[in-house]
Amino acid sequence: METAPVKQRIQLDRDAWVQAAIEVLAEEGVAGLRVEVLAKRLKVTKGSFYWHFQDRRDLLLAVLHYWKDGRIRDIVKQTRAQPGRELEQIYHVIDIYSTTRSRRGMMIELAVRDWARRDPEAAAIVAEVDDTRLRCARNLFLACGVPMEEASSRCMLLYAYVFGLSLMVYDRFDSDPARLKRDIADLIARSAAMKTETPATAS
Amino acid sequence: METAPVKQRIQLDRDAWVQAAIEVLAEEGVAGLRVEVLAKRLKVTKGSFYWHFQDRRDLLLAVLHYWKDGRIRDIVKQTRAQPGRELEQIYHVIDIYSTTRSRRGMMIELAVRDWARRDPEAAAIVAEVDDTRLRCARNLFLACGVPMEEASSRCMLLYAYVFGLSLMVYDRFDSDPARLKRDIADLIARSAAMKTETPATAS
DNA sequence: CGGTTTCCATACGGGATAGTATTGACGAAT
DNA sequence: ATTCGTCAATACTATCCCGTATGGAAACCG
Question: Is residue B6 part of a domain?
């Protein structure tokens, strides 16, 4: 399980810093992502950090690109459906984002998006990810027989919903959040234009 | 237009600080809300601040409550419809939040929600606001003849959508965002259970 | 084995910020 | 006019943090 028999280093590399940075990002947001804090977490000093990175900004950009690559990899995987099971896959995508299961991923997602509201470079990365996501999801709708414009509307609604949902605090509102989410998934996914009428609710 | 003929003070009071704080909050987020920065913006020094507030936390809580009151006031106003025009009002609510017109308000909204992700007190405030909003919006759906559970789903979808939308960067995705938003509004507002079939798209 | 490279520790300067303590200015009441 | 209460300026301490400079240890190379 060693990375390489020759040249095994127990030392930190750029990637280790980026990984830890993403952890902090999820917990504290970009504002809490300080190099000395990060160094303490990795049990080294800044001396190490400034060896691997030019400055703080350098780390932030690395985090951004690391996140982007991971997201896009996941997206294409999640939106690849066996022919005929596209609707099922749509439900699956909604489910992935709206459950507490992927809490960590959503925390990172929200931290990056908040970051992007004030940082053009982060905004550009989010734009790429969103574009990919929307196109992939739209293809699923198209494969279900939904016309282009409606497919666009529905996939946009889908992603806006899942991100917005994790910004809300709705404990007091509904006693059965599971039912709520199921019904909302139907509102998003079910189109009159669809081939399948009563889809097996992919759970 | 004077506040009071007697006792007019040109000096700062708590409220002036809170107002300015919300301005900074919109621009920089909670993390950027520092007392010295705020003081500079108001052209005074911290000496003034610590007279009006116990500490930074004191200001933050004041901001939170000020925001809550304003939100709830707006919500009840926005969701009050003349009988028979409830559907129109639903479209209006969607419109309010999804246009760039109310950009400032949305920036504050997002800043508070990001804040709430790490601060229990902020989360409690957001919970109150969300609960009020959801119930008010649900009443609109109910008034349209939509059954309870569907009304719950649709109003939740409504708010999650508008917040999520302002987190996304979709410039490249669609060439006609106006049409997109219109169609999505239809997906959210239009129910099979509705009395009115083809509502005049309140623009 | 000695030199070189790689990675990290330490020490330092400088800036931003929270909070306190003290003083000062100004208007209002007596 | 004197006094008092209100609000703000100044000065100071203590942190936290970025970035740099420099030295040191361990691995690697010849």
Answer: no
* Nucleic strand C near CB of residue A156 (< 7 Å): no
d(CA A180, CA A66): 34
Looking up residue B116, the CATH number of its domain turns out to be: 1.10.357.10
Q: Which residues of B touch A184 (CB under 8 A)?
A: 153, 156-157, 160
Three-class SS of residue B54?
Answer: coil
Average pLDDT, whole number, for chain A? 91
With respect to residue A179, please indicate whether it lies within any of the assigned structural domains: yes
Domain containing A180 equals 67-189
Does position A5 have pLDDT exceeding 60, yes or no?
no
Smallest Cα distance from B169 to chain A, Å? 5
Q: How far is the CA of B38 from the C1' of C27 (A)?
A: 26
Q: Do A168 and B165 touch (CB under 8 A)?
A: no
Helix residue spans in chain B (DSSP H): 14-28, 35-41, 46-52, 56-78, 86-98, 103-116, 120-143, 148-165, 177-189
pLDDT of residue A109 exceeding 70: yes
**Residue B143 in domain:** yes
Q: State mean pLDDT over B167-194.
A: 93
Decide if A85 is inside a domain.
Answer: yes
Number of domains composing chain B: 1
